[in-house]
């Protein structure tokens, strides 16, 4: 019963703070990379709000947010805002170019609420992935050079420069790879027949397509392509 009452008071307090945010005019902005260690300092709230040591001790500075986890905390001795939970950008903002977390810094006596926007920076923690690991095509040996065959696109949860940027093709004498921008779909690749096929010499051709992202260092994923040469 005591816990329920305490929990109810906390909910009312949080709701009141969130309501006050609508009347708050000041906003702080910080940036932090995803997957940083717990305890990583994001910024100094006390300094940026012109608070002194006395304010920190008497005005009960705290962090309030609408997230299910308490991702950030504040050190009441230094005023540093720091990370308290693992931040996964792909979980918070899947496929979004910009990812920001909005929290509030609340002060008592008198009560003030300051908005804080934290831009979560992407790190290259995912490799490109083909949904299917093997791609099969039946190709007629009567086709002329210049024929094109679209390939499945690799997916990468990372964004910006860490997304898929190029494709590479294993060395062979029959096919080349044409890579073009697919707009919001990133880059797309097509196999282009360069040399006529001869089933009597080779009934199947195995190629390996590699998707490479733009991270430093880059990550990659592969797709095996089997081309069975037919008479039709």
TrEMBL record:
<feature type="domain" description="Cadherin">
    <location>
        <begin position="24"/>
        <end position="130"/>
    </location>
</feature>
<dbReference type="GO" id="GO:0005509">
    <property type="term" value="F:calcium ion binding"/>
</dbReference>
<dbReference type="GO" id="GO:0009653">
    <property type="term" value="P:anatomical structure morphogenesis"/>
</dbReference>
<keyword id="KW-1003">Cell membrane</keyword>
<dbReference type="InterPro" id="IPR020894">
    <property type="entry name" value="Cadherin_CS"/>
</dbReference>
<dbReference type="InterPro" id="IPR015919">
    <property type="entry name" value="Cadherin-like_sf"/>
</dbReference>
<keyword id="KW-0472">Membrane</keyword>
<dbReference type="InterPro" id="IPR013164">
    <property type="entry name" value="Cadherin_N"/>
</dbReference>
<keyword id="KW-0106">Calcium</keyword>
<dbReference type="Pfam" id="PF00028">
    <property type="entry name" value="Cadherin"/>
</dbReference>
<dbReference type="GO" id="GO:0005886">
    <property type="term" value="C:plasma membrane"/>
</dbReference>
<protein>
    <recommendedName>
        <fullName>Cadherin domain-containing protein</fullName>
    </recommendedName>
</protein>
<keyword id="KW-0732">Signal</keyword>
<feature type="domain" description="Cadherin">
    <location>
        <begin position="131"/>
        <end position="222"/>
    </location>
</feature>
<keyword id="KW-0130">Cell adhesion</keyword>
<feature type="signal peptide">
    <location>
        <begin position="1"/>
        <end position="26"/>
    </location>
</feature>
<dbReference type="InterPro" id="IPR002126">
    <property type="entry name" value="Cadherin-like_dom"/>
</dbReference>
<keyword id="KW-1133">Transmembrane helix</keyword>
<keyword id="KW-0325">Glycoprotein</keyword>
<keyword id="KW-0812">Transmembrane</keyword>
<keyword id="KW-0677">Repeat</keyword>
<dbReference type="Pfam" id="PF08266">
    <property type="entry name" value="Cadherin_2"/>
</dbReference>
<dbReference type="InterPro" id="IPR050174">
    <property type="entry name" value="Protocadherin/Cadherin-CA"/>
</dbReference>
<dbReference type="GO" id="GO:0007156">
    <property type="term" value="P:homophilic cell adhesion via plasma membrane adhesion molecules"/>
</dbReference>
């Amino acid at each position: 019963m005591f816990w329920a009452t305490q929990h109810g008071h906390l909910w009312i307090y949080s709701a009141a703070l969130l309501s006050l945010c609508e009347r708050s005019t000041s906003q702080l902005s910080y940036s932090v990379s995803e997957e940083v260690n717990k305890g990583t300092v994001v910024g100094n709230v006390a300094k940026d709000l012109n608070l002194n040591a006395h304010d920190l001790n008497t005005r009960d500075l705290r962090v309030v947010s609408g997230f299910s986890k308490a991702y950030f905390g504040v050190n009441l001795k230094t005023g540093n805002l720091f990370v308290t939970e693992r931040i996964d950008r792909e979980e918070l903002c899947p496929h979004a170019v910009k990812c920001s977390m909005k929290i509030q810094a609340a002060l008592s006596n008198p009560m003030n609420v300051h908005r804080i926007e934290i831009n979560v920076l992407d790190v290259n923690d995912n490799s490109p992935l083909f949904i299917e690991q093997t791609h099969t095509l039946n190709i007629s040996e009567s086709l002329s050079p210049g024929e094109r065959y679209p390939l499945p696109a690799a997916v990468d949860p990372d964004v910006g420069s860490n997304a898929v940027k190029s494709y590479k093709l294993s060395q062979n004498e029959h096919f080349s790879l044409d890579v073009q921008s697919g707009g919001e779909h990133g880059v797309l690749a097509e196999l282009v027949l360069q040399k006529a096929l001869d089933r009597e010499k080779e009934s199947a051709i195995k190629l390996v397509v590699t998707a490479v992202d733009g991270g430093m260092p880059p990550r990659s994923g592969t797709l095996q392509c089997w081309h069975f040469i037919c008479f039709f």
